[in-house]
Amino acid sequence: MFSERWFCFCCPQIHKPARRQMVAPIDEAHAQSDPPHLQINRPRFREKKRSDLTLASVIIIQKWFRRRQALFEMRRKAAWTIYQHIEYSGEQDQLKLYNFFIELMQAVSKNRRDVSVATKVLRRSSSLSGLAEELELEQLTAASTISIEPTYQGPHIVLPITKEHFEILLLAFQRGELLHPHYVLVILHELRRLLKTLPNVNVVSTHLTKFVTVVGDLHGSLADLMIIFHKNGLPSNENPYIFNGDIVDRGFQSIEIFLLISVALIVYPSNVY
User: In this protein, which residues make up the domain named PPP (predicted)?
Assistant: First the structure.
C-alpha cells in the first residue's frame, strides 16, 4: 500500500497539514440574496400569488352562488308542488260535491210530488233567512243607534236626500269638516236600498245630453274630484258622470269621495254610474 506523504514548504517536517475551510469573500448584496438555485423573480412571484388568491376567491363565490341558486330552485319547485296539490285537491272536492248533488237530484226527481214540496220549502226557507238577515242588519247598523252630540257643527243629512244635501256636503268637505257617523249610516242605508233596485249592468245613454264625463282613477284625492267638478260642473240630469277605476284604494280622503259619489248616485240614479 502506498502511504500518502505531504511535504510542507513552511517547515522541514513531513506531516499532513490540517485542512482549513477556505471561505471566499462574499459581498453584502450577494450574502443577502438567495442561493442561485433558489433565486426567483419576486415581482412575478407576487403577481402569481395575487392571481392565485383571486382565482380561489372566484371559485368560492361561484360555489356559494350556485348553492344559493340551487336552494332557490328547490324552494320554487316545492312551492309549485304544494300549489298543484292544493289546486287538485280543490278540484276533487268540487267534483265530489257535483256528484253528490247529481245523485241527490236523481233521487228526488223520482217523485214529482217530493220535488215540488222540496222546492217550496227551499224557497220559503231562503226568503225567511234573507228576511231575518235583513232585519238583523237593519238593527245592528241603524242610524238611530248612534246619537248626535250637541256640540256637533258639521253638515246635517235628512231623508229624502236632495240636490241641496249634495251641495252642502260638498262645501263642508271643501272646508275640511267631518260628517257625523249617524249621517254616514243614513247615506249608506239609502244607497243600499237604491242599489238593490238597480240591475248589475247599466246602459248609459247620451241621446239627450250628447256627452258623458268619465272620471278615471281618483286614488282618494278629494282635490282632484273638486277640480273635475269645477271644470265640468256638478252631476245632474243634464251632466251625466261615470266614475270608473280606482276611487278609494288609497289617499287620506277616500271616505269623503265615496260619500259624495254615493249622494250623487242617490240624487241622480239615472245619470251617475
Answer: 136-200
The domain limits of the chain are 46-109, 110-140, 145-267
> Which of 212, 229, 222 has its CA nearest to residue 255?
222
Check: CATH 3.30.450.30 for 145-267?
A: no
Q: Is the pLDDT of residue 183 over 80?
A: yes
Q: How far apart are CA 123 and CA 126, in angstroms?
A: 5
Q: What's the pLDDT score for residue 114?
A: 55
In sequence order, the β-bridge partners of residue 236 are 239
Q: Say if residues 14 and 6 touch (Cβ distance below 8 Å).
A: yes
Burial 162-173 (b: 16+ CB within 10 A, else e): eeebbebbbebb
Give the Cα separation of 87 and 95 in Å (integer).
Answer: 12
State the virtual CA torsion across 173, 179, 185, 186 in degrees, nearest 10. -80
Locus of grid cell 513531513: 14
User: Across the chain, what does the average pLDDT equal?
Assistant: 74
pTM reported for the whole predicted model: 0.51
User: 82 exposed, middle or buried (CB, 10 Å; 0-12, 13-18, 19+)?
Assistant: exposed
- Whole-angstrom distance, CA of residue 132 vs CA of residue 134: 5
Report how far apart, in Å, the C-alpha atoms of 238 and of each of 45, 97, 170, 258, 268 are: 90, 52, 19, 22, 10
Where does 78-229 show beta strands of DSSP type E?
213-215
Q: Taking the C-alpha atoms of 85, 86, 89 and 93 in order, what is their torsion angle to the nearest 10 degrees?
A: -170
b (16+ CB within 10 A) / e for 113-122: eeeeeeeeee
